[in-house]
């Protein structure tokens, strides 16, 4: 991302965050977007968690979470497509499992992908002392 995301997009990420229930310690949601053409393409994902100290020092884990899809869909002006891709979008998609929503959010055409895991190059969004309770 070279530029700051538009306010409506930051708002959508906040809405998604409110629909997430962490099953283990979790940092902020990460996101990436492409503003070329119509619709806007937005990927949202959990950021990795880095364990610090103890035997697991430096290990990076992916937090578990659930997502209230019904609650999230209620925030869209219109939903044109809503799908689950358990193996990603195809053989050339490195991002893996995702929920895909195509629709209108605050007057903007959006293709939203909610990834089960972050992209491989994503930095940890949270550092957690090893052995800390979940």
Q: Over all CA atoms, what is the radius of gyration?
A: 16 Å
Helix proportion: 10-25%
Q: Helices and strands: which structural class?
A: mainly beta
Could you report the average pLDDT, rounded to the nearest whole number?
Answer: 87
Number of helices: 2
In this structure, how is the largest beta sheet organized? 5 strands, mixed
User: Biggest sheet: strands side by side, in what order?
Assistant: 2-3-9-8-7
Observed structural traits:
134 residues; mainly beta; 5-stranded mixed β-sheet; 3-stranded mixed β-sheet; 40% strand; elongated
Task: Please specify the SSE layout and strand pairing.
Layout (H helix, E strand, L loop, with lengths): L6 H12 L1 E3 L6 E6 L5 E7 L2 E4 L7 E2 L3 E3 L1 H5 L4 E8 L12 E8 L2 E8 L10 E4 L5
Parallel strand pairs: 3-9, 4-10
Antiparallel strand pairs: 1-6, 2-3, 4-5, 7-8, 8-9
Short description:
With 134 residues, this protein is mainly β.
Please provide a written account of the structure.
This protein has 134 residues and is mainly β. The chain has one domain (7-129). The protein has helices at residues 7-18, 69-73; strands at residues 20-22, 29-34, 40-46, 49-52, 60-61, 65-67, 78-85, 98-105, 108-115, 126-129. The chain has a 5-stranded mixed beta sheet with strand order 2-3-9-8-7, with helices on one face. A 3-stranded mixed beta sheet has the order 5-4-10, with no helix packed on it. Strands 1-6 form a two-stranded antiparallel ribbon.
